[in-house]
Amino acid sequence: MKLSLDGLLVLDAIARKGSFAAAADELHRVPSAITYTVQKLEQDLGVQLFDRSGHRARLTPAGEELLKDGRHLLRTAVDIECRVQRMARGWETELRIAHDDLIPSARLMSLVDAFYREAAGTRLRLAAEVLGGCWDALVSGRADLCIGAPGEPPPEAGYTVRHLGDIEWVFAAAPAHPITQASSPIPTAVVMDHRIVTVADSSRSLPPRSSGITGGPDSFTVSTVQAKLEAQVAGLGVGFVPLHLAAPCLADGRLLQLQVEEPRERTPLYLAWRPRDAGRALKWWVAKLEDSAVRAALLAPADLPDSGYSHH
After folding, report:
1. CA distances (Å), 138 to each of 97, 102, 125, 277, in order?
2. Which of 93, 273, 281, 312 has the fewest CB atoms within 10 Å, measured from its CB?
3. Angle at 51 (CA atoms; ends 46, 52), nearest 5 degrees
4. Helices (H) then strands (E): counts for the chain
5. Is residue 87 part of a domain?
6. pLDDT at site 175
7. H-helix or E-strand containing 241?
8. Which residue range is the domain that position 285 belongs to?
9. Is the pTM of this model over 0.70?
10. Are 73 and 46 part of one and the same domain?
């Protein structure tokens, strides 16, 4: 067989990161090793996989076709490896947890601590995602468990979904922002005249999702909910913010809640996992997260001392 899983792994990293050097950083290898792997793959297959004429590594049509099917092979290989290990030990070698940015990682640390006290030997990998990123992580095989995935799940079957809770949104701006002088409720046309702060979807393969206000002439896109809050506190734009995280900013006056003609509906958050892959570690986490007190703590209003948001 001329294909190797390692070659496909390198190909995937280069395509996602945009350069051989960035792929080397992600895979913790020297750039020369990445170059050699690609050259060997091209030689074995007798095709050119990358167009190297520009500053950014770009896949040729043959490379794109290989990457498309190669990612399926990589997911299958990971799935087989994990299932074999789980059958042998009961406890997973590694548990990959994706949580939406609406649930800060700090709120999961007490669960992480309790899990490690089980001395199961399972490595935990915790990753924050945004918008459709949690669903993408589960569907693509990057995560075994999703915590707080927002909105309706994608149509793919094979996983279990449980309702975690709902997020309430408020439209907010810094006290000195011009929009605070508008008549209430603020018309959508007036809102659209101002810069909107948005958070980018972290999906890799699923179509990106949007939320709140979109389509305005001016927007400022950030990568996390915390950055969105900080941008709005700094007066760099306006938009809807999650009430449970914005509570400290609203309480001390760094943000003002404003009434708009088109308020945003509450967003349901979900837990999701693949039951056929459930080892003892995954079952432990699911059991904990089905506790109503744990769920309430994950979505409770942030406290001023523990908010983590700096004053401006």
Report:
1. 9, 17, 13, 12
2. 312
3. 115
4. 11, 12
5. no
6. 95
7. strand 239-242
8. 92-166+268-298
9. no
10. yes
